[in-house]
Design a protein that fits this description.
Elements: E1 15-23, E2 29-39, H1 48-53, E3 59-71, E4 74-81, E5 91-96, E6 99-104, E7 114-121
Antiparallel strand pairs: 1-2, 2-3, 3-4, 4-7, 5-6
Length: about 120
Protein backbone atom coordinates (compact mmCIF):
# COMPACT_ATOMS: atom_id res chain seq x y z
CA UNK A 1 0.00 0.00 0.00
CA UNK A 2 2.66 2.47 -0.99
CA UNK A 3 1.57 6.09 -1.36
CA UNK A 4 -1.58 5.65 0.76
CA UNK A 5 -2.19 7.07 4.21
CA UNK A 6 -3.23 4.55 6.86
CA UNK A 7 -5.43 5.86 9.67
CA UNK A 8 -5.65 4.37 13.12
CA UNK A 9 -9.01 2.77 13.80
CA UNK A 10 -11.33 4.69 16.13
CA UNK A 11 -9.16 7.77 16.43
CA UNK A 12 -10.74 11.19 16.41
CA UNK A 13 -9.64 14.07 14.29
CA UNK A 14 -10.89 16.76 16.68
CA UNK A 15 -12.13 16.88 20.28
CA UNK A 16 -13.14 19.86 22.37
CA UNK A 17 -14.05 20.08 26.03
CA UNK A 18 -15.30 23.30 27.58
CA UNK A 19 -16.34 24.17 31.11
CA UNK A 20 -18.07 27.34 32.25
CA UNK A 21 -18.72 28.23 35.89
CA UNK A 22 -20.83 30.73 37.80
CA UNK A 23 -20.50 31.45 41.52
CA UNK A 24 -22.69 33.46 43.88
CA UNK A 25 -21.27 36.13 46.24
CA UNK A 26 -24.14 35.72 48.76
CA UNK A 27 -23.68 34.18 52.25
CA UNK A 28 -24.92 30.75 51.09
CA UNK A 29 -22.40 29.69 48.48
CA UNK A 30 -23.91 28.40 45.27
CA UNK A 31 -21.89 27.34 42.24
CA UNK A 32 -23.01 26.02 38.86
CA UNK A 33 -21.23 24.79 35.78
CA UNK A 34 -21.94 23.69 32.23
CA UNK A 35 -19.65 21.26 30.43
CA UNK A 36 -19.57 20.38 26.75
CA UNK A 37 -17.76 17.57 24.99
CA UNK A 38 -17.64 17.90 21.22
CA UNK A 39 -16.10 15.16 19.10
CA UNK A 40 -15.61 14.91 15.36
CA UNK A 41 -16.34 11.89 13.19
CA UNK A 42 -14.06 8.88 13.73
CA UNK A 43 -12.66 6.51 11.18
CA UNK A 44 -14.40 3.13 11.49
CA UNK A 45 -11.58 1.04 10.02
CA UNK A 46 -11.12 -0.90 6.82
CA UNK A 47 -13.96 -3.28 6.04
CA UNK A 48 -17.55 -3.65 4.91
CA UNK A 49 -18.97 -1.38 7.66
CA UNK A 50 -16.66 1.51 6.70
CA UNK A 51 -17.46 1.05 3.03
CA UNK A 52 -21.23 0.93 3.61
CA UNK A 53 -21.62 3.41 6.47
CA UNK A 54 -18.54 5.61 6.47
CA UNK A 55 -17.00 6.94 9.67
CA UNK A 56 -18.54 6.85 13.12
CA UNK A 57 -20.73 9.91 13.71
CA UNK A 58 -19.43 12.92 15.66
CA UNK A 59 -21.42 14.38 18.54
CA UNK A 60 -21.83 17.14 21.11
CA UNK A 61 -22.63 16.18 24.71
CA UNK A 62 -23.63 18.66 27.44
CA UNK A 63 -23.78 18.30 31.24
CA UNK A 64 -25.00 20.73 33.89
CA UNK A 65 -24.10 20.73 37.57
CA UNK A 66 -24.15 22.74 40.70
CA UNK A 67 -23.35 22.76 44.39
CA UNK A 68 -24.83 24.37 47.47
CA UNK A 69 -22.58 24.94 50.47
CA UNK A 70 -25.07 24.65 53.33
CA UNK A 71 -22.41 25.18 56.00
CA UNK A 72 -18.62 25.32 55.92
CA UNK A 73 -18.60 21.57 56.52
CA UNK A 74 -21.62 20.39 54.52
CA UNK A 75 -22.11 20.65 50.75
CA UNK A 76 -24.82 19.23 48.45
CA UNK A 77 -24.04 18.68 44.77
CA UNK A 78 -26.00 17.55 41.72
CA UNK A 79 -25.04 16.87 38.11
CA UNK A 80 -27.29 16.15 35.16
CA UNK A 81 -25.21 14.25 32.60
CA UNK A 82 -26.27 14.09 28.92
CA UNK A 83 -28.53 17.11 29.42
CA UNK A 84 -30.44 16.70 26.13
CA UNK A 85 -30.75 12.88 26.45
CA UNK A 86 -28.89 12.10 23.21
CA UNK A 87 -29.28 8.47 22.13
CA UNK A 88 -25.83 6.91 21.62
CA UNK A 89 -26.92 3.31 21.08
CA UNK A 90 -28.42 3.55 17.59
CA UNK A 91 -27.41 0.82 15.16
CA UNK A 92 -27.34 1.19 11.39
CA UNK A 93 -28.11 -1.69 9.01
CA UNK A 94 -25.97 -2.51 6.01
CA UNK A 95 -25.65 -5.43 3.59
CA UNK A 96 -22.77 -7.85 3.84
CA UNK A 97 -23.25 -10.29 1.01
CA UNK A 98 -26.79 -11.68 1.30
CA UNK A 99 -27.05 -10.82 5.00
CA UNK A 100 -28.18 -7.62 6.71
CA UNK A 101 -25.89 -6.78 9.63
CA UNK A 102 -25.83 -3.87 12.07
CA UNK A 103 -23.06 -1.58 13.31
CA UNK A 104 -23.05 1.18 15.89
CA UNK A 105 -23.58 4.75 14.73
CA UNK A 106 -21.17 6.09 17.40
CA UNK A 107 -17.70 4.84 18.33
CA UNK A 108 -18.24 4.93 22.08
CA UNK A 109 -21.79 4.43 23.36
CA UNK A 110 -22.65 6.80 26.22
CA UNK A 111 -25.37 6.45 28.82
CA UNK A 112 -28.63 8.37 28.46
CA UNK A 113 -29.57 11.29 30.68
CA UNK A 114 -28.77 10.58 34.31
CA UNK A 115 -28.74 12.48 37.59
CA UNK A 116 -25.89 12.21 40.09
CA UNK A 117 -26.45 13.51 43.63
CA UNK A 118 -23.86 13.78 46.38
CA UNK A 119 -23.36 15.17 49.86
CA UNK A 120 -19.94 16.09 51.24
CA UNK A 121 -19.25 16.35 54.96
CA UNK A 122 -15.87 17.59 56.17
CA UNK A 123 -14.80 16.47 59.64
Amino acid sequence: MTGQTKLLVITMEHALWTIGALSSPVAVKVSTWLRSEIRSDRYRGVGAAQTALGSFKGYALFSLGGALEVTQRFKLSATLFNLFDKNFVDYLPYRSGATTVYAGEYANPQEGRRLWLSATVDF
